[in-house]
Each structure stands twice: as C-alpha cells, then as structure tokens.
Amino acid sequence: MILYHGTNCDIDEIDLAKCSPKKDFGRGFYLTDIEKQAEYMAIRRVRQSGSGIATVIKYEFDERLVRGRDLRVRRFDKPTEAWARFILANRGEEDFSHEYDIVIGPIADDGVALQLRRYTEKLISMRTLISELTYRKLNRQYCFCTELAVSKLKRL
C-alpha cells in the first residue's frame, strides 16, 4: 500500500526523537492512506510553523505486516470508547506510553478534539462522546511508533 506524509520540509531520514509526544496515538511518524489528507496536513504544517514548503512524501508499506506477528499493531476501525480513551491518555497523561509498533485508526480532527474537550470538562458523557463521533466521516491515520515499524517504510 502507499502511505503519505504531509510536512513543511523534505525528510531524508525519519527521526522519531523529533516527533511530538502528545499526539492521538503518541510519539510517532504519522501517515495517511489518503493523498488529499496529506496535502491538507502539509499546508496546515506550513501555516502552523510559518515556514517551509508544503510537501507530501510517499512511502510504500507492505500491509500484510499488519496481520503478521513481527509487529505489535493496535487497530481502531471506528470511534469507540477504547479509541477515545487511548487518545485521551496519549494527549494528556504525562507518563503514558504504549507498547505498539504501529497504531491505526481514525484521525481526531478539530471536531473530534472539541468533543474530547467537552468530555474531559465533564460536559458530556462517554456514551454521548462516542455517539457524536459515530456519524462523522473520519479519515484513517497510521502512526509508526518504533524504529522497527519505521524500518518497514520504503520511501518512493
């Protein structure tokens, strides 16, 4: 499969130490299987940083590895309570870390972030949170969290 990474600069080598830790699925190298989503993320990254050129980098990944035994993979097919709690832990808990090489699941975009904030502020219940997210069209993201996982990506 082809995966895309949107950024504001070219990347010669993936360095997980440069990746932010407080993202949906924790510290990792994030990609999508939707090229337009990567283009949007690249433009957003340029706006946020105030520098660079919107760049989309393509990688090849053997998706059979997701079903194999060599990598520890956590997959969320849709918004669920487990998905929401995993994101909340990664975004908020100071010492939270997980043992997965790759995490795949819906992107917690700005609309999702708003609902998560409403939940953490105790304005809505977990049931309402999941109900609010169930009918949203959420794009999928792939987070490569370890050097082993990153080694399985082939830049095109």
Description:
With 156 residues, this protein is an alpha+beta fold. It has one domain (2-11, 21-155). The chain has helices at 35-49, 64-67, 81-92, 110-120, 126-134, 147-150, and strands spanning 2-7, 29-31, 55-60, 73-75, 102-106, 140-144, 154-155. The chain has a 4-stranded mixed sheet. A 3-stranded antiparallel sheet has the order 1-3-7. Strand 4, helix 3 (81-92) and strand 5 form a beta-alpha-beta unit. Helix 4 packs antiparallel against helix 5. It starts with a strand and ends with a strand. The mean pLDDT is 90.
Topology:
Blueprint: E1 2-7, E2 29-31, H1 35-49, E3 55-60, H2 64-67, E4 73-75, H3 81-92, E5 102-106, H4 110-120, H5 126-134, E6 140-144, H6 147-150, E7 154-155
Parallel strand pairs: 4-5
Antiparallel strand pairs: 1-3, 2-6, 3-7, 5-6
Let me know the largest β-sheet: 4 strands, mixed
Kindly give the count of domains: 1
Q: Strand portion, in percent?
A: 15-25%
Distance from N terminus to C terminus (CA atoms, Å) equals 12 Å
Brief write-up:
The chain is α+β, with helices and mostly antiparallel strands and 156 residues long. Helices cover 35% and strands 19% of the residues. α3 (81-92) links the parallel β4 (73-75) and β5.
Which features does this protein show?
156 residues, four-stranded mixed β-sheet
